[in-house]
Design goal:
The chain is mainly beta. It is 0% helix and 59% strand. The chain starts with a strand and ends with a strand.
Protein backbone atom coordinates (compact mmCIF):
# COMPACT_ATOMS: atom_id res chain seq x y z
CA UNK A 1 0.00 0.00 0.00
CA UNK A 2 1.44 3.32 -1.07
CA UNK A 3 1.35 6.06 1.56
CA UNK A 4 2.57 9.65 1.48
CA UNK A 5 3.00 11.58 4.73
CA UNK A 6 3.72 15.30 4.74
CA UNK A 7 5.28 17.31 7.55
CA UNK A 8 6.96 20.65 8.14
CA UNK A 9 4.02 23.02 7.89
CA UNK A 10 3.37 25.71 10.46
CA UNK A 11 2.90 29.40 11.17
CA UNK A 12 5.51 31.82 9.91
CA UNK A 13 5.74 35.57 9.36
CA UNK A 14 5.88 37.03 5.87
CA UNK A 15 9.41 36.83 4.53
CA UNK A 16 10.15 33.69 6.52
CA UNK A 17 10.95 30.16 5.41
CA UNK A 18 9.64 26.64 5.85
CA UNK A 19 10.70 23.25 4.52
CA UNK A 20 8.05 20.67 3.80
CA UNK A 21 8.83 16.95 3.65
CA UNK A 22 6.92 14.09 2.04
CA UNK A 23 7.92 10.60 3.09
CA UNK A 24 6.76 7.81 0.79
CA UNK A 25 6.25 4.20 1.86
CA UNK A 26 5.09 1.17 -0.07
CA UNK A 27 7.12 1.84 -3.21
CA UNK A 28 10.60 2.97 -4.13
CA UNK A 29 10.50 6.50 -5.57
CA UNK A 30 13.67 5.79 -7.54
CA UNK A 31 11.52 4.24 -10.29
CA UNK A 32 10.00 6.33 -13.05
CA UNK A 33 7.48 8.73 -11.64
CA UNK A 34 6.61 12.36 -11.15
CA UNK A 35 6.26 13.83 -7.69
CA UNK A 36 4.86 17.20 -6.81
CA UNK A 37 3.34 19.65 -4.36
CA UNK A 38 -0.13 21.08 -4.82
CA UNK A 39 -2.37 23.51 -2.94
CA UNK A 40 -6.02 24.56 -3.26
CA UNK A 41 -6.77 27.55 -5.47
CA UNK A 42 -9.92 29.55 -6.27
CA UNK A 43 -11.89 27.82 -8.98
CA UNK A 44 -9.64 24.76 -8.90
CA UNK A 45 -9.55 21.68 -6.77
CA UNK A 46 -5.79 21.96 -6.41
CA UNK A 47 -3.16 23.92 -8.29
CA UNK A 48 0.33 22.78 -9.08
CA UNK A 49 3.03 24.39 -6.96
CA UNK A 50 6.04 22.39 -8.17
CA UNK A 51 6.87 19.02 -9.68
CA UNK A 52 10.01 16.93 -10.05
CA UNK A 53 10.56 13.88 -12.21
CA UNK A 54 12.58 10.82 -11.32
CA UNK A 55 15.24 12.26 -13.62
CA UNK A 56 15.38 15.47 -11.62
CA UNK A 57 13.58 17.80 -14.03
CA UNK A 58 11.59 20.46 -12.18
CA UNK A 59 8.62 22.67 -12.96
CA UNK A 60 7.20 25.55 -10.90
CA UNK A 61 4.10 27.70 -10.82
CA UNK A 62 4.91 31.26 -11.86
CA UNK A 63 3.82 32.51 -8.45
CA UNK A 64 6.56 30.57 -6.63
CA UNK A 65 9.45 30.70 -9.10
CA UNK A 66 12.59 32.01 -7.47
CA UNK A 67 11.17 31.47 -3.97
CA UNK A 68 10.44 27.74 -3.73
CA UNK A 69 12.74 24.81 -4.49
CA UNK A 70 11.58 21.22 -4.94
CA UNK A 71 13.97 18.33 -4.42
CA UNK A 72 13.98 14.62 -3.73
CA UNK A 73 16.24 12.19 -1.87
CA UNK A 74 15.72 8.77 -3.41
CA UNK A 75 17.80 7.10 -0.70
CA UNK A 76 15.39 8.42 1.93
CA UNK A 77 12.30 7.97 -0.26
CA UNK A 78 11.48 11.57 0.51
CA UNK A 79 10.57 14.72 -1.40
CA UNK A 80 11.04 18.26 -0.10
CA UNK A 81 9.78 21.77 -0.76
CA UNK A 82 11.98 24.58 0.49
CA UNK A 83 9.85 27.70 0.72
CA UNK A 84 11.60 31.06 1.13
CA UNK A 85 10.32 34.65 1.10
CA UNK A 86 6.89 33.40 2.07
CA UNK A 87 3.91 35.65 1.43
CA UNK A 88 0.43 35.66 3.03
CA UNK A 89 -0.89 34.47 -0.36
CA UNK A 90 1.06 31.23 0.15
CA UNK A 91 -1.22 30.30 3.06
CA UNK A 92 -2.81 26.94 2.21
CA UNK A 93 -2.82 23.25 2.89
CA UNK A 94 0.01 21.74 0.85
CA UNK A 95 -0.46 18.26 -0.56
CA UNK A 96 2.19 15.83 -1.72
CA UNK A 97 1.48 13.79 -4.86
CA UNK A 98 3.14 10.90 -6.66
CA UNK A 99 2.20 9.72 -10.15
CA UNK A 100 3.53 6.52 -11.70
CA UNK A 101 2.79 3.81 -14.23
CA UNK A 102 1.95 3.93 -17.95
CA UNK A 103 0.86 7.47 -18.79
CA UNK A 104 1.27 8.21 -15.06
CA UNK A 105 -2.11 6.59 -14.52
CA UNK A 106 -1.67 5.87 -10.85
CA UNK A 107 -1.85 8.89 -8.53
CA UNK A 108 -1.36 9.00 -4.78
CA UNK A 109 -1.94 11.85 -2.32
CA UNK A 110 -0.86 12.68 1.19
CA UNK A 111 -3.14 14.08 3.85
CA UNK A 112 -1.78 17.62 3.59
CA UNK A 113 0.14 19.96 5.86
CA UNK A 114 -1.05 23.47 6.79
CA UNK A 115 1.13 26.46 5.99
CA UNK A 116 0.03 29.79 7.42
CA UNK A 117 1.89 33.02 6.62
CA UNK A 118 1.05 36.06 8.71
CA UNK A 119 1.48 39.63 7.44
Amino acid sequence: QVQLVESGGGLVQAGGSLRLSCVVSGINIFNSNVMGWYRPAPGKQRELVATITSGGNTNYADSVKGRFTISRDNAKNTMYLQMNSLEPEDTAVYYCNLKRGPALTYSYWGQGTQVTVSS
